[in-house]
Amino acid sequence: MSTPAPPRPGPCRGDAPEGREPPSRPFKREDLSALELFDNPIWVFDIEERSMWWANRAGLELWNARDLDELITRDYTDMSTSTLQRLVDYLRRFEAGEVIVDQWTLYPKGVPTTVRCHCSGIPIENGRLALLLDGHRVAGSDEAADGLRGIEAVHHVPVAIFHLDRAGRVRFRNSQALRDFGAIDDALGLLGAETGDEHGSARILDDAMAGEVVAFVTQLESLDGPRWFEVMLRQSLDPLDREAGILFTAFDIDERKREQDRLARARAEAEAAMRARDEFLAIISHELRTPVHTVAGYTQLVAGRPLDSEQQTLVDGMLVAAEQISAHIAELLDSVQDGAARASTPAAAGRAQRPTPRPVPAPVALAAEVQPLDILVVEDNPVNQIMVRAVLEKEGHRVTVVGDGHAAIESVARTRFDLVLMDIQMPGLDGVEVTRVIRARGVSSERLPIVALTANLTPASRIRYLQAGMNDCIGKPFRAPDLRATIARWRPAPKSG
Q: What is the dihedral of CA 155, 161, 162, 163, to 10 degrees?
């Protein structure tokens, strides 16, 4: 005996004839004996126990089972998570009285078989709701076979896939969508809850229906709480009724996003630590070198006066000692910086190679008699002001001294200087900020050379000075010949006749 489709029993509320209540007592296996008359496979699967409960002869043949006892004893506990989630969703829909038509690729004894099933709920022993399947084998062309393979693949990919109608209602969801979001029926709520005004759910659907591919990264409320997803929506035709709808995919990138955020925070913390280290080294360098600079400067001034042999010996010893102390300080600070750079990020390690870019001007021949220059000295330390002024005036230059950055900016705006010697660490505006302001006001480096006069000459600091618009830098403590040579490098060309 063969019929196109067997009459489905009415255990499910949605199947009860009008005016009659569905049967409330659980079915026994013998209650299904009438279904033995049909040639198409019919079987019952106990979802909670993950085991077969009953099958007709055609069902036993489909599952390659010798008899019902052999089929019932088979172990199905190793089914995939996606399959189990799909079945759990069936239970929810059965409880709402729904009858489901779905396509499954089954593997009786490892042999793949595609079956189109009418699925409904049936109460069985111990009050459980089982799955009654009325199956019809699917066979056809290669194109149909490819379609079946595609359907099976969709249920196992790790991407949530929905097919929505034009109003955003769910017409299809794959197993991953069930795992991520449960059995939602309206995607508008899922999108609207997280995307905000910029990507309002109605606007997203309108854009997708208009043919636009809408893609963005956002947090969506999943069954595991808020998680980050890569979302894409695009127009897609329903393969059954050819109605335009929307293909909506959501790929969980929460772990990757959190790792990216963690790395970004770690990078920011490392960069902040490097900045703090550089600032600390700059302060220590300034505090250690400035007193040595002052002692060496005054000693050089004394050395320029008439001295007897004993006095000259003492002064020479003081100069040698000052240079030795300065060298030891430089070695100490360099060692600290190099060690910190090696222990930090690759970017810092690269900086530990200590590049020292610096302009290389054309050699300048020093005449026996040089034209005095108008030089602005920007220095906040009163002792250093006196010392630098004395050294420069001894060379015959005209010197103006100011003690802070604001005064330096005003002086440059008021007076045409030939050269600026700029201290770096000053209260208020530091030397780098002052240089940026001067350059921003149109005073070029050719028009007014600015030379950093500082105890902080780390490679990173040198780069910062040059990027701010300074022409050169000279370290503290300086020797008079070094200062003289630096000034000569930046001396303006003599005016032609």
A: -80
Contact 196, 176 (CB under 8 A): no
Q: pLDDT tens digits for 238-270?
A: 776 778 999 999 999 999 999 999 999 999 999
Residue segments in the chain with a per-residue pLDDT below the cut of 70: 1-24, 139-149, 192-200, 240, 336-370, 494-497
- In sequence order, what are the beta bridge partners of 237? 244
Q: Which of 9, 90, 15, 12 is nearest to 45 (CA)?
A: 90
CA distance 2 to 209: 45
Q: Between the CA of residue 341 and those of 122, 332, 384, what are the distances in Å?
A: 71, 14, 32
CA atoms within 13 A on the CB side of 314: 6
Q: How far is CA 156 from CA 63, 142, 174, 226, 470, in A?
A: 22, 21, 8, 23, 63
Give the model confidence (pLDDT) of 63-84 as tens digits: 999 999 999 999 888 887 778 8
CB 348 within 8 A of CB 274: yes
Give percent of the chain with pLDDT exceeding 70.
82
Q: Integer distance in angstroms from the first to the last C-alpha of the chain? A: 123
High-pLDDT (> 90) share of the chain, %: 36
Angle at 45 between CA 41 and CA 50, to 5 degrees: 140
Please state whether beta strands 113-123 and 129-137 pair in parallel, antiparallel, or not at all (unpaired). Answer: antiparallel
- Domains detected in the chain: 13-151 (3.30.450.20), 158-252 (3.30.450.20), 280-489 (3.40.50.2300)
Task: Name the residue with tokens 């969506």.
Answer: 220
CA distance 390 to 301: 8
CA triple 457-459-464, angle to 5 deg: 85
